[in-house]
């Protein structure tokens, strides 16, 4: 049995709200202990820069290219991650013992159908910066964790399922099997775990991205806080039916999404321009719930329970719509002693340890890669 190590995970997700930092102790197969976690919000100008970078990344054909604003965004993103770790270690001195750091970077383009996924973030530059954070020499930073999977023919996403499977081992007595982990970030994805086979995972559709963009356009606010706007509105069922006709939702996995994949489609078919802000938010929230429900027939059998994580797990309106449409109990991860907000950052700490051990990060049942696939690029923290 491998020895557990202290690892830091860094995650900047599709919601573009900030950098999640989490500390765990793990051998890459099980979790020996959960440590502290924190979120460091992006500045308004940082988020605007990332939005511009994502827009410009649509033109990329080379995953290593950083034309125009992409170079500026990568420089900013790397610096902000370094600052986040400095602040985290200052607040939680035990984090200075970390021997491994998992760095996801920021996805600016995800087009697995053309074997292209792009995460900005300079691993070697960040590794040098982390010495200033007080991390001891001799450790390693692991980054670029999706590229090997895509190069081998996989979707490159989702990567968190192997961590979900490790978490599920501690939940069997309370939730039973099969259990479904549901991540509600900018995009929603599910992980189906039966305790016997490799996890089955795929993106189901939009989660928060469309809602957040709609709220920003209508109100100037970045989110529908607590789902209050959606709760005050009415779902346009006719519009919802038009949107659910998109072939992606019935497509069998493996399948994954870019944050903006449905932006144009929704603008064309939802008719939100003619709806109130409340009705628009309600309809988009219902879309997120309904597309998760559309995923259930694609699973081997109906799950006994759903564990919800990510930012959407704090939206009671979305959780209520999910419970209603799924017909399965939906429990926020926090209610089970897990962390809805830190789970993905924890996962990238876990994945980094697996990468250093040469263990697979993805599987044919999660990304469609031909065989279980290791990955990641390691750089010394010296």
Automatic annotation (TrEMBL):
SUPFAM superfamilies: Actin-like ATPase domain (SSF53067). Keywords: ATP-binding, Carbohydrate metabolism, Kinase, Nucleotide-binding, Transferase. Its EC number is 2.7.1.170. One of its GO terms (biological process) is amino sugar metabolic process. InterPro entries: Anhydro_N_Ac-Mur_kinase, ATPase_NBD. ATP binds at residues 13-20. Pathway: Cell wall biogenesis; peptidoglycan recycling; Amino-sugar metabolism; 1,6-anhydro-N-acetylmuramate degradation. GO terms for molecular function: ATP binding; kinase activity; phosphotransferase activity, alcohol group as acceptor. It catalyses: 1,6-anhydro-N-acetyl-beta-muramate + ATP + H2O = N-acetyl-D-muramate 6-phosphate + ADP + H(+). Belongs to the anhydro-N-acetylmuramic acid kinase family. PANTHER family: ANHYDRO-N-ACETYLMURAMIC ACID KINASE. NCBIfam families: PRK09585.1-5. Catalyzes the specific phosphorylation of 1,6-anhydro-N-acetylmuramic acid (anhMurNAc) with the simultaneous cleavage of the 1,6-anhydro ring, generating MurNAc-6-P. Is required for the utilization of anhMurNAc either imported from the medium or derived from its own cell wall murein, and thus plays a role in cell wall recycling. This is Anhydro-N-acetylmuramic acid kinase. It comes from Ancylobacter defluvii. The gene is anmK.
């Amino acid at each position: 049995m491998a020895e557990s190590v202290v690892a830091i995970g860094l995650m900047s997700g599709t919601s573009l709200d900030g950098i999640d930092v989490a500390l765990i102790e793990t051998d890459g197969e099980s979790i020996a202990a959960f440590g502290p976690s924190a979120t460091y919000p992006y500045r308004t100008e940082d988020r605007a820069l990332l939005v511009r970078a994502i827009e410009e990344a649509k033109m990329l054909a080379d995953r290593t290219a950083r034309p125009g604003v992409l170079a500026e965004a990568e420089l900013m993103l790397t610096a902000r991650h370094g600052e986040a770790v400095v602040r985290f270690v200052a607040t939680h001195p035990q984090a200075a013992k970390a021997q491994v750091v998992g760095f996801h970077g920021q996805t600016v383009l995800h087009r697995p159908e053309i074997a292209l996924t792009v995460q900005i973030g300079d691993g070697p530059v960040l590794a040098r910066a982390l010495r200033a954070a007080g991390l001891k020499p001799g450790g390693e930073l692991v980054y670029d964790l999706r590229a090997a999977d895509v190069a081998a023919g996989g979707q490159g996403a989702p990567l968190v399922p192997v961590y979900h499977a490790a978490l599920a081992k501690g939940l069997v007595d309370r939730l039973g099997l099969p259990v479904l982990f549901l991540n509600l970030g900018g995009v929603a994805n599910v992980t189906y775990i039966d305790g016997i086979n490799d996890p089955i995972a795929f993106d189901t559709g939009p989660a928060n991205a469309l809602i957040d963009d709609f709220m920003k356009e209508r109100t100037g606010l970045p989110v529908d806080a607590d789902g209050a706007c959606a709760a005050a509105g009415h779902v346009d069922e006719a519009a919802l039916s038009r949107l659910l006709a998109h072939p992606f939702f019935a497509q069998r996995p493996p399948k994954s999404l870019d944050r903006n994949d449905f932006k144009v489609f929704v603008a064309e078919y939802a008719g939100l321009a003619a709806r109130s802000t409340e009705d628009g938010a309600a309809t988009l929230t219902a879309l997120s719930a309904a597309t998760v429900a559309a995923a259930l027939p694609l699973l081997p059998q109906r799950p006994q329970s759903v564990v919800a994580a990510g930012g959407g797990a704090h939206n009671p309106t979305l959780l209520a719509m999910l419970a209603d449409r799924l017909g399965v109990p939906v429990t926020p991860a926090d209610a089970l002693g897990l962390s809805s907000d830190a789970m993905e950052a924890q996962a990238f700490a876990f994945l980094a340890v697996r990468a250093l051990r040469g263990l697979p990060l993805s599987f044919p049942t999660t990304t469609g890669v031909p065989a279980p696939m290791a990955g990641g690029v390691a750089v010394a923290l010296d």
